[in-house]
Design brief:
Blueprint (H helix, E strand, L loop, with lengths): L1 E2 L4 E4 L4 E6 L8 E6 L6 E8 L6 E9 L2 E7 L6 E7 L10 E7 L2 E6 L5 E7 L13 E5 L7 E6 L7 E6 L2 E8 L4 E9 L6 E6 L6 E6 L2 E6 L4 E7 L5 E4 L6 E5 L5 E5 L8 E3 L6 E6 L6 E6 L3 E6 L4 H6 L7 H5 L2 E5 L6 E6 L6 E6 L3 E6 L8
Parallel strand pairs: 1-28
Antiparallel strand pairs: 2-31, 3-4, 4-5, 5-6, 7-8, 8-11, 9-10, 11-12, 13-14, 14-15, 15-16, 17-18, 18-19, 19-20, 21-22, 22-23, 23-24, 25-26, 26-27, 27-28, 29-30, 30-31
InterPro entries: Beta-prop_EIPR1-like (IPR059104), EIPR1 (IPR040323), WD40/YVTN_repeat-like_dom_sf (IPR015943), WD40_repeat_dom_sf (IPR036322), WD40_rpt (IPR001680)
Protein name: EIPR1-like beta-propeller domain-containing protein
Keywords: Repeat, WD repeat
């Protein structure tokens, strides 16, 4: 089924790539997003869906000094979140110019030295109804990295004092103490010379298991020993996400080759393959409540909604999804195509699992409901 967006829009002032559900806010459907401006002061927006579900309201707008490449909300405290940011660029430092390339319609410049990346844990100040609030409070800096940082991971459910940060070559496990405003490295492991890490996902079913992505594989780690336990060998993996409802299920987005669903007990080949997007499939995320409901986003300026249960039992018992001609024809339930730029950010709402937010590079947030594809119980 193809269609444009009928969702609720919200515009950021600058370009952006990352958005996160505020899972710890159990009273509102809320999202955090951050901007990626080279020249201007960047911003973090706290956005809430109105009680009637008809508009997106900015509940807080906070200054962030650097370009935000990754943002994740703390799962147990709605005022705490992490960012990965760049500190310097070709445009504000005097460096030799080494080259450029085209990436999804953007010119990406490379400088010889000077640009670095940092990561920090922040706390939102008490708002007291103010829109332009005091500055964000930096709780801790994850400053042990010497390589380009790609992401920070929180364990998806419950209170946990551990954090993971991933750079191009290393996996760090941190102990975070918000009350003392400290973060200490507990352990570190290097992926090896042949593996250039790009991101990761923490297993919601096993607090000691994490997956890291690189161009040629997904690697699985035991955090107790910081040793690799397994790997899925695939080319050009952009993103990976664990299924919140089913143990052992991982979904990957793989550039031109689409979306693959893996049973990690049988990692040699995927249990299901979805066609993905007409250009790079950039992000993929599993619904927190409904089995087999998957979102993907791509540089073809679209978001796709898929139904792909992972077992015959789920196919037979999945009463939450409407029987429809679109389903019978294939796993694609809908394609939201009313975007003018690449879509990099996706987030399901934990509070209202039939709701998701998407973010395109031009700073446009769209919140959609998938209720038309769910049964009326």
């Amino acid at each position: 089924m193809q269609g444009g967006s009928s969702g609720i829009g919200y515009g950021l002032k600058y370009q952006a790539r990352c958005i996160s559900d505020v899972k710890a806010d159990t009273d509102h459907t809320s999202f955090l997003t951050g901007t990626l401006s080279l020249r201007e002061e960047n911003e973090v927006h706290l956005i809430r869906l109105s009680s009637g579900g008809t508009e997106l309201i900015c509940e807080g707008l906070f200054s962030h000094p650097n370009e935000i490449w990754d943002l994740a909300s703390c799962p147990f405290d709605q005022r705490i979140f992490s960012t990965v940011f760049s500190t310097g660029s070709l445009f504000d430092i005097d460096l030799p110019f080494y080259g450029l390339k085209m990436e999804t319609g953007l010119i990406v410049f490379f400088a010889g030295e000077g640009e670095s990346y940092g990561a920090a844990i922040w706390q939102i100040p008490e708002l007291y109804g103010q829109l332009n609030s005091p500055q964000l409070e930096r709780i801790a800096s994850l400053d042990a990295h010497t390589r380009k940082i790609n992401c920070v991971l929180w364990w998806p459910s419950g209170r946990h004092d551990k954090l993971i940060s991933i750079d191009d070559e290393n996996l760090f496990l941190w102990t975070l103490d918000c009350s003392k405003k400290t973060a200490q490295v507990q352990s570190k492991q290097t992926s090896g010379m042949l593996h250039y890490l790009s991101g990761g996902a923490w297993d919601p079913h096993d607090i000691n298991a994490v997956a890291t992505t690189c161009e040629s594989s997904v690697q699985f780690w035991d955090l107790r020993t910081m040793k690799k336990t397994n790997a899925v060998e695939r080319a050009h993996i952009r993103n990976a996400n664990y299924d919140m409802k089913n143990n052992h299920i991982l979904v990957t987005a793989e550039d031109e080759s689409g979306i693959h669903i893996w049973d990690l007990r049988k990692p040699k080949s995927p249990v299901k393959e979805l066609p993905g997007h007409t250009h790079w499939t950039w992000a993929v995320t599993c619904n927190p409540e409904y089995d087999g409901l998957i979102l993907s986003a791509g540089t073809d300026s679209s978001v796709n909604l898929w139904l792909a249960p992972t077992s015959a039992e789920e196919d037979a018992t999945s009463e939450s999804i409407v029987e429809s001609p679109a389903q019978q024809a294939g796993p694609l339930l809908n394609s939201y195509s009313d975007y003018e730029d690449s879509v990099y950010g996706l987030a399901w709402s934990s509070r209202e699992p039939w709701t998701f937010a998407s973010l395109s590079y031009d700073g446009r947030v769209v919140v959609e409901s998938v209720k038309p594809f769910l049964s009326r119980k």
